[in-house]
Amino acid sequence: MRAAVYRERGVVRIEERSVPVPGSEEVVVEVSHCGICGTDVHLALEGWGRRGSVLGHEWSGRIARVGADVSGWTAGDRVVGVPQRSCGACRWCRAERPSLCEARPGAGVGETPDGAFAPYVRAHASQLVRVPGGLPLRAAALAEPLAVALHALNRAGVRPGMRALVTGAGPLGLLVIAALRAHGVDDVIASEPAPARRERAGQVGATACVAPEALAAPRLPFQLAEAPVDVALECSGSPAAMESALAQLGRGGTLVLVGTGLRRPSFDHNRILLNELVVTGAFNYDAGGFAAALELLTLGSLPVDLLTEPDDIGLDAIPQALERLARGEIAGKVLVAPGGRT
Ligand SMILES: [Zn+2]
Ligand SMILES: [Zn+2]
Q1: Distance 97 CA to ligand 1 centre (A)
Q2: Strand segments (E) across 139-283
Q3: Which residues contact 314 (CB under 8 A, 6 or more apart)?
Q4: Is there a contact between 249 and 229 (Cβ–Cβ < 8 Å)?
Q5: What's the confidence (pLDDT) of residue 106?
Q6: CB of 61 within 8 A of CB of 103?
Q7: Distance 287 CA to ligand 2 centre (A)
Q8: Rg (Cα) of the chain, in Å, rounded?
């Protein structure tokens, strides 16, 4: 089979690979769709990927082969894969916070198993979640990034009636905006530098879409922004956006860092102290996050057509899509259709 392989910083090549064979507790899935994640962009273009690995973790597909000791799954079953395995036994897993599992691997550095920018992907049976009947596999490929968005809402303590700010309206920011609206948050401001992404943010449900410079930061730490927000969800990974999001919080507000990057923000500690602000992070998913994401998608509560780019791409177009995503030229989720047997 052909696969998109990370070689070195900035280099993703299409190479010939043998079709994976399942271990005794594993299955091999014929990939229907696999989304390109911000993480793939970082891994490939910033150079933290494992050399020789196949990228792509946001996949959906049908089980093609089942390992000898796997029960409960058969060939043809429609599934999505949970990339992070958690031990189920440590104190964080027992507290239903698998994102903090003590046995979790590092944040994608050097340890990623082969992914689904290929017609077939191998997965442990414990990582499979069944796709509800009636939900197309294409939409189901949004389960992973939507689970990330739902975890961020949970970390923010979002409730209906709140006023929210989302900084960065790329594929993840758009999912966060749509998830906020689906959770009864009807006052959502999106801050985003790229006009095309701002426009899409409005289409998926942001009630106001502004360029970052339009958000004036109050000068003194005890002064609040003109229209402060209860929660801010930072989805860009840009230090300026993190600082701006903090400055927009009202008293007792919460900033959740969802987007990542290598450059660090500089936060005004006096603003945090005087207004009792909470700054926290959101990594991966809630326990049951995939089931919640699939349920939202199945209910039709999200504008899938606006959250994804209209034309799915083949493996050959991945390197170019990574570059365009890094430049902010694409608003929605790019879905790769690697094309298995057919
Ligand atoms: Zn992802
Ligand atoms: Zn654990």
Answers
A1: 18
A2: 163-167, 187-191, 208-210, 229-234, 249-257, 278-281
A3: 336, 337, 338, 339
A4: yes
A5: 61
A6: no
A7: 11
A8: 20
Find the ligand nearest to 85 CA. 2
Q: With contact defined as beta carbons under 8 Å apart, do 6 and 49 qualify?
A: yes
How close is the Cα of 289 to the center of ligand 2, in Å?
Answer: 16
Quick: pLDDT tens for 298-318: 999 899 999 999 999 999 999
Give me the residue label for tokens 């999200």.
Answer: 302
In angstroms, the CA 322 to CA 35 distance is 11
Both tokens of residue 206?
């942001």
Q: φ and ψ at 319, to 5 degrees?
A: -55, -45
Phi, psi of 24 (to 5 degrees): -65, -30
Q: Is the pTM of this model over 0.90?
A: yes
9 φ/ψ sector (left φ>0, alpha ψ -120 to 50, else beta): beta
Residue (of 50, 33, 36, 39) closest to 114 by Cα position: 50
Q: What is the DSSP letter of 109?
A: S
Structure tokens at 151: 């975890």
